[in-house]
Structures are given as structure tokens and as C-alpha cells.
């Protein structure tokens, strides 16, 4: 209806990415959105995520930093920045972004898992991770998947499984890739692959991030995992070679 509406191109791009696995088509629409409105938060936010998923580290960081300058008071942008910086091994930048999100709104964890907790876990600071995940649980009344992963990393598999079951039970729908994160941490790789295949079938919107997420590193030599990356439009060789 209006070819000059930047956000319309953003969500057309997301439709192409999620429903068709058409990443080239999605990137073209995102580029059009940024061309129309270079200062659009959604345009820069989503194209940063796409470039990250495809292993285009430098482009992802360029758009991420632009998004942070456009909307520095957005806790969602800060939490997202913490996550992407973590994926690329930029821990100092990730900590700064994650702490900024908490400063902007200490209760935002009621709406989404704190990326800072995952960063603490991957850095081996498990007590700090547990504290943040438990705070999030106190706000919403049930645990998140990140807490289950953390228990698994602490060699507490029964608590991990119980936490996973509780997290799934409280949600009307859970994407397969969310559950797969926990199965990988529990060394249940066959179960993780099964959930990733379900995520493919159900067109999980977050599935494209599994290639660069460090939680899935144990699957990177599994031919089934590489096949899933190809199926959803990613180039495994490029994605897995992305600097971290």
C-alpha cells in the first residue's frame, strides 16, 4: 500500500525469513527499509540480527551499534546487544549492554530472559547467572530455559530436567529450539536434533540464531545439525567460521 513505509519492509522481510527461509529476499527488504529510514530502530535492529545469523560479523556489529545510538534508552535494544556481543565473544561490550538493560528497568525480566544471565553462565560465573534467573522466576512465577541450561552446566541434571518441564508446562507453546538448548547442555544430542527439526517444521522465528549461539557448539560437527542450517537458508561453512 505504501512502498515508502520502512517498517512495512521490515515485517515483509521477517515474513520471508521465517515463512520461506528466503534470507536473500529478507536482506533485500531490510536494506530497503534502512534506505527509506536510516534512523529506524526496527530496520537497524532486525538487519543486525540477520547479518549475525548469516555469519556477517562486521555488518552485524555496524547495525547493532547504529541501533544502540538511535535508541539508547531502549532496554530491548540493550538486552539484544548483550546477546549479540556474547555470540561474537565480545564480553566487555556484552556486560556493558546487559547491565544497561537492568539499569533501565530491573523488572524487564518479567517479559524476557536476561541476556546478561546467559553471558555470566558462558563466562563460568554460574552463581551470578543463577541469581538473575531466580530473580526473573520470582517476577513471573515460573523458570526460564536459561536456568535449566545453567543447572545442566553445574552437573545438576535432575534439576535441569525439572526446570525444563516446569518452563514448558507454563507456556501455551514452546519453540523447539528453546528446548533444544537445554538438551544440548544435558548431552542429549538426539533429543536436541529432534527439537530443532520440529522448530524447522513449525517455522520458529528464533531458529536462525542456533548457528552462532555458543550453546550449540557441541553440535557443530554433527551432520544433522549442518543439514538443518542448510535447510533454513544458512551457509554452515560461513556461519561456523564467523569470528568469536
Structure summarized in a few sentences:
The protein has helices at 6-20, 23-36, 41-53, 57-70, 75-87, 91-104, 115-122, 126-140, 145-153, 157-169, 176-185, 189-201, 223-231, 236-241.
Provide structural commentary.
The protein is mainly alpha-helical and 244 residues long. The protein has 14 helices and no strands. α1 packs antiparallel against α2. It starts with 5 loop residues before the first helix and ends with a helix. The mean pLDDT is 95.
Defining key terms:
244 residues, mainly alpha, 14 helices
Quick one: how many beta strands?
A: 0
Percent of residues in helices: 55-70%
- Taken as a percent bin, the fraction of beta residues is under 5%
Q: Biggest sheet, in brief?
A: none
Q: Count of helices?
A: 14
Structural class: mainly alpha
User: Which residue ranges are poorly predicted, with pLDDT under 50 across at least 5 consecutive positions?
Assistant: none
Mean pLDDT score: 95
How far apart are the first and last residues' alpha carbons, in Å?
41 Å
Q: Give the overall shape, derived from the CA principal axes.
A: globular
Helix-strand string: HHHHHHHHHHHHHH
What is the CA-atom radius of gyration, in angstroms? Answer: 18 Å
Amino acid at each position: 500500500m505504501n512502498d515508502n513505509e520502512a517498517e512495512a519492509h521490515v515485517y515483509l522481510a521477517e515474513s520471508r525469513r521465517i515463512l520461506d527461509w528466503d534470507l536473500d529476499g529478507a536482506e533485500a527488504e531490510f536494506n530497503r527499509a534502512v534506505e527509506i529510514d536510516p534512523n529506524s530502530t526496527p530496520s537497524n535492529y532486525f538487519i543486525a540480527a540477520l547479518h549475525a545469523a548469516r555469519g556477517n560479523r562486521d555488518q552485524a556489529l555496524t547495525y547493532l551499534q547504529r541501533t544502540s545510538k538511535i535508541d539508547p534508552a531502549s532496554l530491548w535494544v540493550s538486552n539484544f546487544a548483550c546477546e549479540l556481543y556474547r555470540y561474537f565473544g565480545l564480553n566487555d561490550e556484552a556486560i556493558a549492554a546487559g547491565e544497561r538493560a537492568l539499569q533501565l528497568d530491573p523488572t524487564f525480566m518479567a517479559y524476557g530472559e536476561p541476556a546478561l544471565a546467559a553471558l555470566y553462565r558462558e563466562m563460568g560465573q554460574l552463581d551470578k547467572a543463577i541469581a538473575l534467573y531466580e530473580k526473573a522466576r520470582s517476577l513471573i512465577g515460573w523458570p526460564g530455559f536459561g536456568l535449566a541450561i545453567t543447572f545442566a552446566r553445574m552437573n545438576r541434571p535432575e534439576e535441569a530436567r525439572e526446570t525444563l518441564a516446569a518452563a514448558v508446562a507454563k507456556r501455551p507453546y514452546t519453540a523447539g529450539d528453546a528446548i533444544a538448548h537445554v538438551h544440548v547442555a544435558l548431552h542429549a544430542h538426539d533429543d536436541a536434533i529432534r527439537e530443532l527439526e520440529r522448530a524447522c517444521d513449525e517455522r520458529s522465528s528464533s531458529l536462525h540464531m542456533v548457528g552462532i549461539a555458543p550453546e550449540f557448539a557441541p553440535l557443530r560437527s554433527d551432520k544433522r545439525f549442518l543439514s538443518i542450517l542448510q535447510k533454513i537458508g544458512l551457509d554452515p561453512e560461513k556461519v561456523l567460521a564467523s569470528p568469536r
